[in-house]
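Re: beginner question about structure tokens

> Can someone show what the tokenized structure looks like for a real chain? I only ever see the sequence side.

Sure, here's an example I had lying around. Input first:
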Amino acid sequence: MLTITIFELQLSGHFLVLIRLLNLQSLPLIHYAFWLALFG
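And the corresponding structure tokens:
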């Protein structure tokens, strides 16, 4: 479980960097699509 948590933290960290790179576009849509892909 700890490894999964660490992996999720790393994944979310990479996603936050991606969000900042795409910040000029629609941030809420990308964020929603990300969470939908993970937990949908």
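Each token stands for a local structural state, so reading them left to right follows the chain. The mean pLDDT is 75.
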